[in-house]
Amino acid sequence: PLPAEAFEACRKQSTTVSSLSLVRFDDNDYSVPVAYAHHTVVVKGFYEEVRICHLNQTVAEHPRIWSKEKVRFEPLHYLAILERKPGAWDHARPLEGWDLPECFEVLRRRLETEYEGGEGTREYIRVVRLLEKHPMKELRKGVEKGLRMGALTRDAIAQFLYPQETWR
Predict the structure, then answer these.
(1) Under a CB-based contact definition with an 8 Å cutoff, are residues 48 and 64 in contact?
(2) Tell me: the pLDDT tens digits for 28-52?
(3) Which residue(s) pair with 158 in the sheet?
(4) Helices (H), the chain
């Protein structure tokens, strides 16, 4: 009889996530969420993608890199730590080349004008962290609506992301 589970055509490797939230697989580095730093994970190298699993749950997926000594970052993996250190936002290597819609930059400027001492950037990062649970298209609409209405905080923009009941 055939096995009960489908065969995964991949190469598996057990490793530990580095302090920089990276795992090494085939001489390349792939990012994982910062919550998994220093944890043991299993890296599954498929032909087209690399999956990183912790306790039988996939915590990160990346397109596979076939060259050597490259790094593949997912900016969302690093937002939690940047929220604690908002001054690093402009210099964070995982965010290099991350193009957010223009409305996000407008939101950031307005928040930094309204709040002092890095709190504006911190609130901006809280808004961007909504991407962890919502698609970019929805969040962009929420940010645009928040900018029109003057509702700039994370909590206000989050309200626009959930279905609104119609009142009779």
Answers:
(1) yes
(2) 999 999 999 999 999 999 999 999 9
(3) none
(4) 79-84, 102-114, 119-128, 136-149, 154-159
